[in-house]
Every structure is written in C-alpha cells, then in structure tokens.
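Section 5: illustrative case.
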C-alpha cells in the first residue's frame, strides 16, 4: 500500500514539475531566439495562424492543450532502455526528457482536434538528422484510447 501511494505521489509531482516548453519554443522561433530552418518557421507560423482561425467559418478545428500535455507526459514517463542514459549507476533519472523542438512536434500533432474530438493530424512526416531522437515510434507506442482514435 505504501509503495502504491508513493508511486502515485511521485507520478503527480512529476506531472506538475514537467515543463511544457512547446509554447516557449514557438515564441522563441517567432522572435528569432532559436535558429530554425525555413520548414520549422513555416510549421510554427501555421500553428500560430491556425490558433487565430479557431471559431471562424470554414475552420472546423480547435486546439486542446490537454491532449498535447498528456502525450508529452506519457513520453516523459518512459525510460531509456539502451545506451548511456539507460545506465542507472550514471544517472539518477533515466526517464526520457524531450527537447523543446520535440515537444513542439508533439504539441502540434496531438493538440489539434476536429469538432468530433478526433485528431486533425493522423500522420506526421518527421525528418531528423541521424543523431537526433526518433520520437515517431514513441508517438505510435501509446494505446489507441490514449491517442484519441
């Protein structure tokens, strides 16, 4: 019983302490603080412009940050299984920590919903150079009920 209470306490504390840097990343890209390529700038601009279009005629989508936060939280609860970051003797916390650009991708893909509550984007093409983390497999690792299908 003590272990269950401790786990729940740690889970909720972790959820409270997890920072959602996607919004800050968006503002940093817009202001030029973060160096970004043309395609990232276009993705950020589309996201910001779509936020302005919510509720207007001909735009049946809305943004629900809670869905995006849940997806980010889920991924950040997973632990590294291979490599240096999976070594408990070297690292106190072996959970995955998403970079701001990774959080933005999840934020943009998972947060947008249609009027029925289903995801606006059901597929995302994410191209990252070889040394970067592959988050596409983590997005698809969640059960269908969590993904909102």
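Designed sequence:
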């Amino acid at each position: 019983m003590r272990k269950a209470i401790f786990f729940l306490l740690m889970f909720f504390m972790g959820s409270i302490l997890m920072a959602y840097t996607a919004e800050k990343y968006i503002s940093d890209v817009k202001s030029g603080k973060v160096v970004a390529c043309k395609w990232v700038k276009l993705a950020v601009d589309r996201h910001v412009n779509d936020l302005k279009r919510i509720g207007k005629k001909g735009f049946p989508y809305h943004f629900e940050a809670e869905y995006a936060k849940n997806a980010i939280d889920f991924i950040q609860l997973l632990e590294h299984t291979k490599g240096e970051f999976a070594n408990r003797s070297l690292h106190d916390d072996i959970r995955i920590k998403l970079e701001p650009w990774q959080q933005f991708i999840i934020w943009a893909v998972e947060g947008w919903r249609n009027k029925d509550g289903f995801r606006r984007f059901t597929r995302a093409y994410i191209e990252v150079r070889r040394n970067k983390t592959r988050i596409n497999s983590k997005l698809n690792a969640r059960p269908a009920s969590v993904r909102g299908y």
